[in-house]
Specification:
The protein has two helices and twelve strands, in the order αβαβββββββββββ. The N and C termini lie far apart (55 Å). About 13% of the residues have low confidence. The protein is an alpha+beta fold. Helix content is 15%, strand content 41%. The strands form two sheets. A ten-stranded antiparallel sheet has the order 6-5-4-1-12-11-10-9-8-7. It has a single domain, classed as Calycin beta-barrel core domain (Lipocalin, Beta Barrel), CATH 2.40.128.
Length: 179
């Protein structure tokens, strides 16, 4: 009798939990940056521009005596040599989120891919729900915290905080539309 009752409760528990297991998270899909909304939500960084590292056709210039003078490249942090590049998440204009088994796969257009495992794995702490993804890691030179969150209007808000060991903390926010 007790064994039958245990089996019945276990089957009811599986039947109750199975709809949640098969549900696709709202984060899954293709996302493209919304430039206007990204400008509006950008935090005030002393030495960072909202479009830093996007790799698009954004131009900056300095005016000296009324004559525009071009400034370096779009990415003030060089890829090789001098500085550490921004996370891939900041260097793309569109990306795709997929669930592959127990992992989450982020494919950044023209930048690369990233596979995330739930929990603590290889120095990264990753956790996600249907509408929220957060990941953080620490290297010898900096700590990076990243979050993706579905807003009430259905857009995706990306927040990245880069905290160098010997420097000012920089925060970036981007708003993405589903494509």
């Amino acid at each position: 009798m007790a064994r039958t009752l245990c089996w019945a409760l276990a089957c009811c528990g599986l039947a109750w939990a199975s709809p949640a297991i098969g549900k696709t998270p709202k984060l899954v899909g293709n996302w493209t940056v919304n430039i206007e909304l990204s400008q509006a939500v950008q935090p005030k960084n002393a030495n960072a521009r909202w479009y830093e590292g996007l790799g698009g056709n954004f131009s900056t210039s300095v005016s000296v005596g009324g004559i525009p003078v071009p400034v370096g490249g779009n990415d003030p942090q060089p890829e090789g040599g001098g500085g550490i590049p921004n996370p891939d998440m900041l260097r793309c204009q569109s990306f795709t989120i997929e669930i592959t088994g127990d992992d989450m796969l982020l494919t950044y257009a023209e930048v690369g891919t990233e596979r995330l495992r739930q929990g603590y794995y290889r120095g990264r702490r990753n956790k996600w729900t249907s509408t929220h993804l957060s990941t953080d890691y620490e290297s010898t030179s900096r700590k990076v915290t990243r979050t993706l969150e579905i807003q009430k209007d259905g857009r995706l808000l990306m927040s990245v905080k880069i905290n160098p060991k010997k420097g000012k903390t920089r925060r970036f926010k981007r708003v993405f539309d589903r494509t």
